[in-house]
Amino acid sequence: MDSAQQQSWKQAAAEAAAGLVENGMVLGLGTGTTAALFVAALGRRVQQEGLRISGIATSQHTGDLARSLNIPLTTFAEHTELDLTVDGADEVELGTLFLIKGHGGALLREKIVAAASKRMVVIADETKLVEHLGKQTVPVEVVQFGWQVTESRLKKLGAKTSMRLTSGGEPMITDNGNYIVDCDFGILQNPKETAHHLDHVIGAVEHGLFLGIASQVIVAGPAGVKTLQRAAAAK
Question: Within 13 Å of residue 234, how many CA atoms lie on the same side as its CB?
């Protein structure tokens, strides 16, 4: 895969998503390389068109980027329901639009923001589309206290686990002060069952299976940009 070509696909998807934004909207602003392109496109609309919007960032990094582009930020204290969240994904399952997210380290805030939104639109290049989730690991955010116990519970669910580390070899700490344990379950034939088990692991704060949350995926590839709708049976 040519990285420049993939970058152009991400850019096309981000621009298409920015076109969905209307005056007065309260937005969830995702985290990651593709989401950053959306925030940049949004910033251009704010500057060039005087677009009036506000956003809730899913990470400190996204918040810093939004502020640098003069995108007004708000809080859940002011808005408990958002009009639209736009974010990327590590994997998108065709048909269901089930997602694996969190390889950028912001899965907890991303899920809180997405769940508070009337609509979540995912932007991706076509390399993120899969028949079944599981080629990528499932990130699980865990509290620091007793993380070894939490990791052992994840292993009992059948996961091959690895602590997310920084370039210096130390455990990566999320914006929420937690660790991330990446879990390799292999191909997920029943993502809902896996998510159910992860929901009940003591010490796990949140996991990267986003099921029934995304309503649309804007995906770009060699044939251009297209929009995928979630199958009705996958809600």
Answer: 20
